[in-house]
Design a protein that fits this description.
- InterPro entries: ATPase_NBD, ROK.
- The protein is α/β, with parallel strands linked by helices and 311 residues long.
- It folds into two domains: 3-114 and 295-310, ATPase, nucleotide binding domain (Nucleotidyltransferase, domain 5); 125-291, 2-Layer Sandwich (Nucleotidyltransferase, domain 5), CATH 3.30.420.
- The chain has helices at residues 39-53, 92-100, 109-120, 179-182, 186-198, 201-206, 214-222, 226-250, 260-264, 266-276, 297-310, and strands at 3-9, 13-20, 30-33, 60-65, 68-70, 75-80, 86-90, 104-108, 128-134, 138-144, 147-148, 170-171, 174-175, 254-258, 287-290.
């Protein structure tokens, strides 16, 4: 397989590029907002745009996407929107086939990211790698000896639904879920609850908790605002517990971290995990590395998934 149209689709951003199977991006990545309720049409149109952007045809389409994936059926079973709603059954492969007659490889974005790390990213000589994505939610994947752990129904790697504490906050119906307190959605929710329960009247009046974002919390912590520092201290402990739970289950030699929350706040996220990890860890401590693939990790993951299908 010579050339591939690669896509990294998240809840918020839709990224596309033409690449070779060895991981070389032949075009600069194009980024646009994800349109969850028009996603099949958006993908088919983007394939057409990529075809017009290069002087040679490509052989296949590779898609890493947020949500639960039916790879055999070429569909996204459930796609989470940034506002927490779910779009069911998006038939992306059939839309691309109708428009362009090209085969589609479809894989969950966090699973794909683990494959991307294994083939193109932070792995050195480790035999087992775990990747954790901190984005709108939290997800990940495990690759051992070059093989992705998929699970019975292809749902392995839903790390964000690991219960990390006996709190009452839910994600996708799971009480105590890691992503309910440490994801792009979870951090502002945790901060808002902290302000309402612990902050003084001045903070409660000054901070608009209804409009609070994860970025706001990190900026406030950098400014030494007490409520934000205390919130992120709690996030650090939850993150360490979550990473340790993954490690205790699969014993990786390296854990790589990605997603917007980690990539935009690397010092706080990585140092927080490093500080508290040993409290929760049973297996030998792995190396913790930020992904070198940055925001393009979804594209590399999609390419790695195509390569895995060929072997």
């Amino acid at each position: 397989m010579d050339r591939v149209a690669a896509f990294g689709i998240g809840s918020t951003n839709f990224r596309a590029a033409v690449a070779t199977a060895d991981g070389t991006l032949l075009t600069d990545p194009v980024v646009e907002p994800t349109r969850p309720r028009e996603l099949a049409d958006q993908l088919a149109a983007a394939v057409g745009d990529l075809r017009r952007s290069t002087d040679r045809p490509f052989d296949a389409v590779a898609v890493s996407t947020a949500g639960l994936v039916d790879d055999a059926g070429g569909a996204i079973r459930e796609f989470d929107t940034p506002d927490g709603e779910t779009v069911d059954r998006i038939a992306v492969a059939s839309a691309v086939d109708r428009a362009h007659g090209l085969p589609v490889t479809l894989v969950n974005d966090c699973n794909a990211a683990a494959l991307g790390e294994w083939h193109y990213g932070a792995r050195e000589d480790e035999n087992c790698l775990a990747h954790v994505t901190f984005g709108t939610g939290i997800g990940g994947g495990v690759v051992a000896d070059g093989r992705l752990l998929r699970g019975e129904d292809g749902q392995a790697g839903e790390f964000g639904l690991l219960p990390v504490a006996p709190h009452d906050y839910e994600s996708t119906g799971v009480t105590g879920a890691w992503e309910a307190v440490c994801s792009g959605r979870g951090i502002p929710a945790l901060a808002a609850r902290h302000i309402e329960a612990n902050a003084g009247p001045a903070d409660a009046e000054r901070v608009d908790t209804d409009a609070l974002t994860a970025e706001d919390v990190f900026v406030a912590a950098d400014g030494d605002e007490r409520w934000a520092v205390e919130c992120l201290d709690a996030v650090a402990r939850y993150n360490a517990a979550g990473v340790a739970a993954v490690c205790n289950a699969v014993n990786p030699g390296v854990v790589t971290l990605g997603g917007g929350v980690a990539l935009h706040n690397p010092d706080r996220i990585v140092s927080g995990i490093e500080e508290h990890l040993d409290r929760f860890l049973f297996v030998d401590r792995p190396t913790i590395r930020l992904t070198p693939l940055g925001d393009d990790i979804g594209l590399y993951g999609a390419l790695a998934a195509v390569g895995a299908e060929q072997t």
